[in-house]
Specification:
Distance between the termini: 21 Å
Strand content: under 5%
């Protein structure tokens, strides 16, 4: 019976033994997805014309739906793009004082979205165990664990922030979009969402570190990963 040094929603990693090994073909598939995701993200920084951005958007959507391992919805990513674009356009208007820079601001937002979209979808649709297995092929297991945990940490933290936000709204905090249109309500957002989110992030990081120590993470130089769905 192998011993385990990490438990996560994506699976857990065994210190020794071959019982947790994944199929070789599945490892290669995850590695290929990672390479394609990195390539798509890199291309976003060199696409600077509308025609190239449209072509890259079509390629991104086609590749992401081809690589998906199950149902894929981009509703969350589209919402993020909407708010990101609003913020960037507002900053451009404040900077230049006119509407002349709106297209440039939209193009910057479009590029940023295409740079992060493949990685966001990859992390959301791939279990941590699969990511660790792919990283273990090219880097030490300790570094693979840290990097994969960082990639999965952001979605967990965003889910916690959403819960905090909804709870504070139910308590009557003035942090709805119509409330935040008034600058004197911004301190409520800081005290009711930002500060609790920072505290919750530190607590999540502490829990991950405690779970790793409790399972003797790092005691053995080589380990295998239990496959996760």
């Amino acid at each position: 019976m192998p011993r385990f040094d990490l438990f996560s929603p994506g699976g857990f990693c065994a210190l020794n033994g071959a019982a947790g090994q994944d199929a070789k073909g599945q490892k290669v598939a995850v590695g290929r997805r990672m390479v394609m995701v990195l390539a798509l993200s890199g291309l976003a920084f060199v696409a600077r014309t509308p025609s190239y951005l449209l072509a890259l958007t079509a390629i991104d959507l086609a590749v992401l739906f081809w690589l998906r391992s199950g149902p894929l919805s981009l509703r969350r990513e589209a919402k993020m793009f909407f708010w990101q674009t609003l913020i960037i356009l507002a900053l451009y208007v404040i900077r230049f004082g006119t509407l002349a820079g709106l297209w440039q601001g939209f193009q910057i937002s479009w590029q940023l979205f295409l740079a992060f979209l493949p990685g966001l979808v990859f992390v959301r649709t791939t279990s941590q165990a699969r990511i660790v297995q792919a990283f273990n092929r090219v880097m030490p297991c300790r570094m693979a664990f840290v990097l994969s945990t960082c990639l999965k940490f952001v979605p967990y933290l965003l889910a916690e922030i959403k819960i905090i936000y909804e709870g504070q709204v139910l308590r009557g905090a003035r942090i709805l979009p119509k409330d935040l249109a008034k600058p004197w309500h911004w301190p409520d957002l800081l005290h009711c969402v930002v500060v609790p989110a920072v505290v919750q992030g530190m607590a999540l990081a502490g829990n991950i570190a405690m779970a790793a120590r409790a399972r003797d993470f790092g005691r053995h130089p080589r380990r295998t990963c239990w496959p996760g769905e």
